[in-house]
Amino acid sequence: MSSDTVQDLTPYRENNVTTxxxxxxxxxxxxxxxxxxxxxxxxxxxQKWEEERNLRKQKRKEKRxxxxxxxxxxxxEGGEFVAGRKRLRKEVKPSSPLRLVIDCxxxxxxxxxxxxxxxxxxxxxxxxxxxxxxxxxxFLTSLGGQxxxxxxxxxxxxxxxxxxxxxxxxxxxxxAKEQLVYLTSDSPNxxxxxxxxxxxxxxxxxxxNHHKGITFERAQELGIDxxxxxxxxxxxxxxxxxxxxxxxxxxxLVYLEKRDWQEAFFTVLPLRKGAIPLGQEGTATEExxxxxxxxxxxxxxxxxxxxxxxxxxxxxxGQGGQETLQLKEAPKEQTxx
Length: 337
Known about the structure:
Elements: H1 3-14, E1 24-26, E2 32-34, H2 37-51, H3 53-78, H4 85-91, E3 99-103, H5 112-130, E4 137-141, H6 145-154, E5 164-166, H7 171-174, E6 180-183, E7 199-203, H8 214-222, E8 225-227, E9 235-236, H9 245-258, H10 261-268, E10 276-277, H11 289-295, H12 308-317
Parallel strand pairs: 3-4, 3-7, 4-5, 6-7, 6-8
Antiparallel strand pairs: 1-2, 9-10
Helix pairs in contact: 5-6, 5-9, 9-10
């Protein structure tokens, strides 16, 4: 064989095991090199993987068909099976006229790590409202500063959020003062019923109780109504009664559905709060509230959850908005709400 012929065959032999000796192949210098044991194993695994490519494809197809058949069967037998989030969304009742407003004007009073926690709590509020039986009119006001920067950086899809009104202006510039009720645990007024004509304001503050009473002071300065949730009438707690933004938000949503404050509290409040129905305190012990509650504050809500709402909207409209819905454990940070 001429040298030209050998040169033409070299590229082929370099990448293939020869039929005469499976332990050898042609090297870059044209000579024969012996494959190591590991190289032979890798080569055989690759060959086997290529040979079974069509088989894997067929198995995936059969698996999809099987799942499709199971969903169809369940739908016919049970009548309650929901195929996809789009149908689930259609079953949600019309939005409530009630408005919930998160006041984000405390940006300069928080450390950046607490701003990030507030962001996660807002994500949680948005997620639960989108899936609520009675979704409320959701407002974010005074959005700017560190909070907006963090949202733009870590959750670019928030600009595609639906069923939410985002304003740079303060809440009292967006809603008439006579319609506002600031929810604050320092208020002497107790909220017993929800008024659909009102807009209830939740203080967007994560401060480890460093600014006690600030939301109550803000409400008094503006001359607007204020109230606290009827927690003392239904719940005995081993920790502080200052709840996180998302907890207040979720309690309001559950109450709209159940019309029962006690059920709303015990559906939402985390176990770490030591919540016990009033009159059933038993031997519940007091904890070191200030330090322990702060140490356990969570940075979760990712996603939850993540991209649940994005998936829902893709099914509804085929759009790629990156709505973040982290539905893991709710964030546990305290706020001024």
